[in-house]
Amino acid sequence: MTMTNPMWSVALRELRYHRGRYIATLLAIAISVGFMAAASIVTATEGSALGKQLSAKFTEADIIVTVQNAPEDLTVKDVTAAIKSTPGISSTQVLEDTMSVVETSVKAQVVTAVELPLPGFRWASLLYGQWPEEPNQVAISRQTADALKVGTGDEVTALGTPGWLVVGITAEGRNRLSGDNMYVAAGTFARQDASPMGFDWLVASADDVHVTQRALRAALAELDVAASVRTSHVAIDDAVKDAMKDVNAFKYILWAFAGIALVVGAITVSNTFTILLTQRRRQIGLLRCVGATGSQVQRSVLGEAFVVGLLGSLFGVGLAAALAAIVGLVTGSIAWGISLPLRDVTIAVALGLIITVLACAAPSRQATKVPVLQAMQSADVSVSTSRLSLVRIIACSVLTLAGATLCALSIKNPGSSFMMAIMGAALVSLGVLFGARIFVPPLLKVLGGLTGHLRPSAGVAAKNVVRDPRRASATATALMLAIGLVVTLQVGAASMQATINAQIAAAYPIDLWVRGTVDGAGQLSAVPNGVSSRLADVPGVSASVRLSCREITMGEGPTAKTRSLCRYDPSIAEVAPGQPSQLPDGAVLVPARSGFPKAGTRATMVGLDGAPVTGVAVTGKLAAQVGAVFVPPALYDAIGGPSTDGFVVLLRVADRDNIMPVMRAFDKAIGGDTSVFQGGALSQKYAYDKIMSILVSITTGLLAVAVLIALVGVSNTLTLSVIERQKESAILRALGFKRGQLRAMLLTEALLLTLVSALVGVAFGAFFGWLGTNALTVQIDGPNAASTGTIMAIDWGATLGLLGVLVAAAALASLLPGRRAAQASPVEALAQDVS
Is the domain of 521 the same as that of 667? Predict the structure, then answer.
């Protein structure tokens, strides 16, 4: 008769009758698995919602036409006419929209202003009111109306001008990563004479959709237009895939962190099962006395771990889904439903189960090795006397050195910088993890020596915390991982934000710019004087300059193209720091893209009324951002032809971190004037900062659970310490130690473990945060990354706040073990030892 079935029954009885013993283990598993599952569920939900919202404009059309390239003289009106004349087309409309700010006297909201689609193409529905039909009428979403506290009949400021009447409230899904829509009357933007590149056309087909697709491709090819002609289903799928592609990169980064969190959980589970098995020493001894073998007892314990791991993993998935719902409520993505990626969730559950069983293997094996007679006695202090293994020291040194080498190589290797940084960080982390036994006890001794003389309880705590170096190192390792994880995110996010802002400033030297229009005859219209003067007076604008420009023909023969040419003004250096005060004689500043002369080649320019003039092409960010060619004053005059003063106005903002008020005032200054176009780095920086703040907030919330897991491990370590030191605690009480002193002793032990972990975790977390930012920058920008470099930034408020929370949490973690030690009777503890 075997003991297999009876031992399984023992395992189930333990789970049923001693549920409280497994709460810490269940919590650690649930948080670890929930971290990984949440990374997938939250990103899948947000990405899917973002894609669905961005593609909502395609839902009522049959075909979507997106112009990717077109001849310079072709306009939106020409493409619309070509689409309308294509056989099989029942109706079509170009989508016209722009980013704007809608505001009241007390609040503002960034929206996408959309010209009202035709009835057959409208994807939003009215809750009440009507669609805008007259100029200065708008329909806004319910979310925008609630945020601004307005309704139909109220007036708002939109597109930079006051007096817009809200005539309708719409119902449609939203996501904070993309914002809400605001609908204006058809014809508001008046862009029919603009270039068609980048515009989308909604098309309704009267015939078979695929037949109409082929006809549209042929019609556009006759105009020499390169365009994407997709069915609405394909366009929607592409939008969702593009959105998911962006968030999946973020998900994989989170999964890398979640893998480390699983390791933290495994350490905590291992320590917790060590406590449980220590508490059951006599029970295990009795089972061995009645015939159970060591392997049968071990299988019974592993069975407990399997059940606890499965329940904890499933509970973690539930927590992840609840977190995704909460995040969805905050961002608005809940309107599109929660996406549950089954493959990712199954992997998370399986990993949680495997990690739990593996983490329990060592404690269960160790418990069965205790002799039966010794197991029948109470637990006593078990001081680890094992020496450091030379193999461990060599292995950890090799891992750390190899990782540091890869980290150093990743700094300037654009080909595989990110992968090298990940591998290097992983090797360094493994070296630190496995080497914690080498440096944690000495650090604890140093800190303990600094605090040991303060009071008797602190002196005892300083000695007790290194009583078992192996367990103290394991607990500190869990905390180091958790703290390092959070600091990595904080430093990485702050560094990424500072680096990208610096790159935006370098790539887009002009904060804000406006330019006039060009008609079909090549006549330039200047930015109205009233608009440019109001722009110069915008609070926060520190400098502005009006440029003289003319229309020219650049190039010769069939490759010649019409361009806007501007006179390079010395004041540009004031508006765009880093730009030269003047161009070299004969230089022609052009964008570094196709269609323009390459740097160092001859550039031929012909004014509308002048002879050909040549210069040497020089590429620059200023020309690329404004979309114009710049030449020195002498060369500008030599080209000749009609000149328009104030065709381009450049502005500089003193404080790039205070964006929203400047953008609002900027829109007001333009006043809805459709004769000017606007752009600049400020809007890009605002959009990036908004997305980063949301993503970092969500990620910080996810990563905070790793700290919670590690603090559960601190509490477990102290609990095990209390169990093993019953006789010692009793002797201390008999010698005069009070209950408060015992609690203070355990609090000091918790603080020492936390402080050592914090020192190491913050140091490595700050380095890994900078390393990851640098690797991403080098990987994306390649050799160009050196132009700005990676800026290391630390959010000191968040980092110091984390340390404060850790100190408070360490105090809380010591409460239950301290209470247990303080309530134990000295007489009973000493009696158990001699019984």
Answer: yes
